C-alpha cells in the first residue's frame, strides 16, 4: 500500500522527464532500438540498408536526387547521423564562397556529405575522404560512384585519420588544404586538428568546419580553438539532423596561423 503510494508520487516526475527529454527518447528509439531490431531482422548493417534504399529509389548520376533520397530515408525510415539538409545548406553556402580546390573530409560514413561537397566543388578540385570502417567505406564508394564522381574528383581513403593526416603530403602529394570537414568520432577532433596544424597543410584562409560540436559535443576541441590563437571562429547554431528538438551546431574555423 505504502510502496504503491510512493510509486504514484514518482509518476508526475516521470511524465515531466518524458516531456522534457522527449526528443532524446525519440533519438534513442530511432538511432539505437530500431537499429538493433532492423539489424537483427535484415542481417544487414544500417548503412547497407540505406544503400539498398538509395539504389532502388534514387537516380544514378543525379547527386541532388541521391541526397533527397537519403534525407527521405533518414527522416521517415531510420535515423542515420549524416549532416542532413539544414546544416547541409550552411556547408553548401560556405563551399560556394570559398571554391576550394583541395578538400579533406574526415568520416565518410555512407558518403552523404561526400556527395554534398563533391557536387559543390569547382572543376578540377579534388576531395579526399577518410573512413576507417571498411564496411561503411564499401557503401560510400558505391554511393559516390553512383552519384557520378570518379576517382579524380573523390578519392576514398580507408584508414584511420590519425594515420592518414601525417602522410597526406607524402602519400597524396598535397601541398595545402583549402577546406577540411570533420564529422568523425568527436574525441578525434582535437588531436586531428593538432595533427593538421603540425602537418603545415593549413595556410592563411584555410577553413575547417566541424559538425556536432554542440551535440554530442566536442568541448576539448572548442577549448583548443579558443585558446590557441590560430583561428577566427564562429559557431553556426542548428538543430541536430532529422531531430528538430535537439540543439546542435557546426564550428567554422578560418586558419590565420598567428599565435
Ligand atoms: C557521423 S559519421 C559521418 C557522417 C558523414 N560525414 C555524413 O555526414 O554523411 C562518422 C563516421 O566516421 C568514421 N570515423 C570515426 N572516427 C574515424 C577516424 N578516426 N578515422 C576515420 N574514420 C572515422 C566512422 O566509422 C563513421 O563512419
Automatic annotation (TrEMBL):
Keywords: Catecholamine metabolism, Endoplasmic reticulum, Hearing, Membrane, Methyltransferase, Neurotransmitter degradation, S-adenosyl-L-methionine, Transferase, Transmembrane, Transmembrane helix
Group of enzyme by EC: transferase
Metal-binding keyword on record: no
Catalytic reactions of this protein: a catechol + S-adenosyl-L-methionine = a guaiacol + S-adenosyl-L-homocysteine + H(+)
The EC number(s) this enzyme carries: 2.1.1.6
UniProt signal peptide: none
Transmembrane segment boundaries: 6-29
GO annotation, cellular component aspect: endoplasmic reticulum
Domain of life assignment: Eukaryota
Entry-linked PROSITE patterns: SAM_OMT_I
Family listed: Belongs to the class I-like SAM-binding methyltransferase superfamily. Cation-dependent O-methyltransferase family.
The protein, known as: catechol O-methyltransferase
Amino acid at each position: 500500500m505504502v510502496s504503491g503510494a510512493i510509486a504514484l508520487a514518482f509518476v508526475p516526475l516521470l511524465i515531466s522527464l518524458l516531456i522534457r527529454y522527449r526528443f532524446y527518447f525519440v533519438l534513442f528509439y530511432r538511432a539505437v532500438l530500431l537499429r538493433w531490431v532492423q539489424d537483427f531482422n535484415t542481417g544487414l548493417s544500417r548503412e547497407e540498408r540505406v544503400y539498398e534504399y538509395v539504389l532502388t529509389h534514387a537516380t544514378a548520376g543525379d547527386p541532388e536526387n541521391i541526397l533527397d533520397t537519403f534525407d527521405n530515408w533518414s527522416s521517415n525510415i531510420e535515423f542515420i547521423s549524416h549532416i542532413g539538409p539544414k546544416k547541409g545548406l550552411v556547408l553548401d553556402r560556405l563551399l560556394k564562397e570559398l571554391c576550394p580546390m583541395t578538400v579533406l573530409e574526415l568520416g565518410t560514413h555512407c558518403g552523404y556529405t561526400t556527395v554534398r561537397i563533391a557536387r559543390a566543388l569547382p572543376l578540377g578540385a579534388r576531395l579526399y575522404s577518410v573512413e576507417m570502417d571498411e564496411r561503411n567505406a564499401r557503401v560510400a564508394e558505391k554511393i559516390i560512384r553512383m552519384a557520378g564522381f570518379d576517382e579524380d574528383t573523390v578519392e576514398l581513403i580507408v584508414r584511420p585519420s590519425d594515420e592518414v593526416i601525417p602522410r597526406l603530403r607524402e602519400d597524396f602529394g598535397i601541398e595545402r588544404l583549402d577546406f577540411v570537414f570533420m564529422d568523425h568520432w568527436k574525441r578525434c577532433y582535437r588531436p586531428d586538428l593538432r595533427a593538421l596544424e603540425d602537418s603545415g597543410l593549413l595556410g592563411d584562409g584555410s577553413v575547417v568546419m566541424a559538425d556536432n560540436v554542440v551535440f554530442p559535443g566536442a568541448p576539448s576541441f572548442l577549448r583548443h580553438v579558443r585558446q590557441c590563437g590560430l583561428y577566427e571562429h564562429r559557431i553556426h547554431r542548428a538543430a541536430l539532423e532529422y531531430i528538430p528538438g535537439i540543439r546542435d551546431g557546426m564550428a567554422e574555423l578560418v586558419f590565420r596561423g598567428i599565435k
